[in-house]
Amino acid sequence: MIDSALRDQVIHRLLASSDAKISAAEVTDATSLRDDLDISSLILITLASELEGALGVEFDDEELSRIQSIGELFEAIEKSQRRSRSA
What would the CATH number be for the domain defined by 4-13+34-86? Predict the structure, then answer.
């Protein structure tokens, strides 16, 4: 499970990149990046790049293109962290 401080950091970063009128408290794993937060693929790629640098994780381009919700983004982060630890 992803650390709550990291979760909050990612959610706040997404909200800062979004024009959506939604608060961090309203964001759930089911929150859609595109429909609810109006996050474009370019913004998601930029965020993923920032996370790769900050967390030492790596996202596969194909995996990144399939991410539709906040929950899926956190699953991808966790998966990448597990890969990094086992390498």
Answer: 1.10.1200
Domain boundaries, the chain: 4-13+34-86
| Digitized pLDDT (tens) for each residue of the chain, 87 residues in all | 778 888 998 899 899 988 888 999 999 999 999 999 999 888 888 888 988 888 788 888 888 889 999 999 999 988 888 877 776
**Residue 77: which residues within 8 A CB-CB, separation 6 or more?**
2, 6, 10, 51, 55, 57
Q: Determine the residue type at 49.
A: S
